[in-house]
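Here we describe the complex-level prediction in full. Unlike the single-chain runs in Section 2.1, the two entities below were treated as one system.
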Amino acid sequence: MENILIGLQQFFNPMVFLALMGGTLLGLIVGALPGLNDSITIAVLIPVTFGMDPHVALSLLVGIYCASACGGSIPAVLLEIPGTASAMVTAWDGYPMTLKGKSKQALSLCMTSSFFGGISSALVLLFFAPILAKWALKFGPPEYFMLAILGMSTVIGMAGKNIAKNFLSMCLGLWIACIGMSPTTGMARYTFGTASLMDGIPLIPRMIGLFGIYSLLKMYDAVGKKKTDAAIASENAVASSEDRIALPGLSMCKRLLPTWLKSSFIGNVLGIIPGAGMTMAIFLAYDQAKKSNPKLEFGTGVPEGVAAPESANNAVVASSMVPLLSLGIPGNGTSALFLGALTIQGLRTGPTLFNDYPDMAYMIIIGFILANLAMLPMSLVFCKYLASKVLKLNPQVLAAGVVILCVTGAYSYMNNLFHIGVMVVFGLIGYLFWKFGLPQAPLILSSILGSMMESNWVSSMVYANNSPIVFIQRPISLVLVILSALFLLWPLVQRLKKRLMSVPQAV
Amino acid sequence: MNRSKLINLTMPAFFVGFFVWVILSTMSMEKSEAIFPRMIGVFSLAVSFFQLYSDLKKADHKDKFQNSNVLKVLEATAVLFIYILLMKKIGCLIDTVLLSFYTMYALGYRKLKVAVPVSVLLTLVVFLVFKLLLRVPLPMLFFDF
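The structure predicted for the assembly as a whole is:
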């Protein structure tokens, strides 16, 4: 308790407090800009923070990290372009809500869900950091491999009627993950002599293509086409004035509470495991929400489809700091940058951090709580003014704005024109997938998890002398095997259940 | 075989060809680096054949490109590639103004008196945010400083 008060005390320094608030606002803004994210901003700011007071510097970075995941949902909801990779699943139900004239409600849900997830992970960081970090270290290559399989099986489990199409999409994604240097030999694979492909196909331009350019191509596809009743209805819906930015009502909170709790739990667990990542958390949370609400039609603009990924992605934020602060092991790329920032300030992370620098360790943790508390009103005000402006724009003018944001975002990721090309190609892939009824989710997830799968498969085989039994010999891995099998079999169980239910009726 | 069926069969047929190529390409790789893409290739090939067989057996086929302006989609894709090629020739600002104007015009916005200044304004706003505030080194060419 004493240490918590020491951490809180740091924020009575106005500079530290202002840095946290400034960082939160900056995080919201960079999150909302496609192509820019927390890692890029923190990487750019680390040299700037070198000369700052350590408390001020770290408060600024905490604010950015906390708010950027939340900011990423704004363009995902309004324009179907996720501002950050963590918001890609939010677009699936967030954008349909915009089409139904409920964009402000969707944004309000995003912000509230982010707050819920963020606060839960900050509390986990505050009370359970050392215990959980030790547990997370039990994950070896077989567990990581099975974790990737679990992630993919959830997406396959989300399949509607055609599982084969889901598998095809997944396999293409896995092949995309093979592009670049082989994790075993370091030799180039499928790079076609292009140096820019040596590091593989970068995620950000890929996502901008699959969401932003894809939605633009869909607009081009409809040029000259007679408007359908649904399209006319959605245009009229956008003009509706009942929609507003506000905290969800009590009934909505009650409805979303189970989704928030489950998704935050998933986010917290996966955030603590180093390398498991945000992507897996948002997909798993979405899948769980879908399974828990079988009557709702996900992908058509249901609040649960927005609440699940948003609370999961913000739950990952602070919990990814658990292994960093407790053991000195960064949980993801952004917390690795935090490690750099802490090192620059002369601090050593790990178990001794809490004893040697309690003011700093607890200031970071309290910073996450305060940043989340500040983020909620700040983001609601931010959305209130931004959303109303964006929605008043003519769709063609808005499309011009979207295309500029897409190309600039893809370029600014690594200052490489090649990435704009990658974005266009993936936009076209998204369009063809839509035309042929292939789902995008397995492609996205498997292309992200593919490299993790491959390297951990190789390590597991080396470790177990090429015996796949290793996956069922280790307890955590065995649990993951069982869970994967359950998720994979879920659609079959559902179908069987439906068939059994329909039998008495038929009789 | 009708047109709709033929179009629908192109997708699994493409995947069959593609994954055959993936498997063949692993022949020239070292064993350790070939194992993963080969596993993917073999599994995918089986799924692709299954999909091809299912689509062949299916009786009713919807034309997925009916009522689609595919030419416009291809034109827009080509324009985006031209945008990339022109970036280093005419600079980011002019190139982006042209792209945003094309986007509005191609999508049916015909008020030129609005479209031109809006294209310039949108480009300038994004330029201000990315180049001046966030220090992204956009290839400006004529307007660099």
